[in-house]
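Protocol step 4 of 6: structure prediction from sequence.
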Amino acid sequence: MKQITLILFALLIGSTAFSQASKIELTTVAFNVRYNSSEDGVNIWENRKEWLTHSLRFIKADIIGAQEVTYKQLTDMAQLLPSYNYIGVGRDGENNGEFSPIFYNKIRLEVLKSETFWLSTTPNQVGSKGWDAALPPRVVTWALFKDKISGQTFYHFNTHFDHRGENARIESAKLLSKKINTIANSKPVFVTGDLNSSPESETIKTLLDNELKDPYLTLDKDAVYGPAYTFNGWNAGGRNANHRIDYVMYKGAVEPISLHILDAQRGDLYISDHFPLIFKAIISL
């Protein structure tokens, strides 16, 4: 009887350990870092880059989906984030144009596959501009990641939608949703991006209708902290929920823990003209 009890106890411990091993906690950041414009006064890139990368190291982000990153900023961030690698190409191809890169903790995570596609009717054509988009091409960078300890895998998609073309944003949301369904299938998915769309817009509705979830809406109010907006425009006065245009979304076996919109401002100095979002979640497989 005693031997049976010991066997049952061992099985229970083993089952609990397996259950714990099948879950991993991930910290994902969405961050429009603002391109390095010489016209930003006190907020020029040189005044922000140390602060910005220090914040990411302190947060201990596992994944960082960044937007508006020029090649100069990309190399600066790579140098100042030595524990991270990145994937992604410029929207004009190779190192040309702004990037929407994904930085990842190279000690913890491994890239199994990654690609970039363009937000247009010809997504595989480098530099293609879609619909009524105002600016040069917009891109989506995605990767299949593997957690080196648990072996668990998940997908991350990072993007930046057009700031003027309403139809371009809606069609981009449709294309992104279609690509996620095709590429990721039933795997856990994270999406980060400056979507240039308020929470009530048709663009966001399109994404939510395609089974993506916004933790700002799904989490209990005590698990969400920070201002109601993400875009500050170097002046946070008068900003409201219509200026929540940056997002972290998720799909699949993902359990949200918390969402923090980091209102990083020091007098006249801002970390960026967008505040970053810090999303903690558990992946269960």
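Step 5 (inspection) to follow. DSSP finds six helices and 14 strands in the chain.
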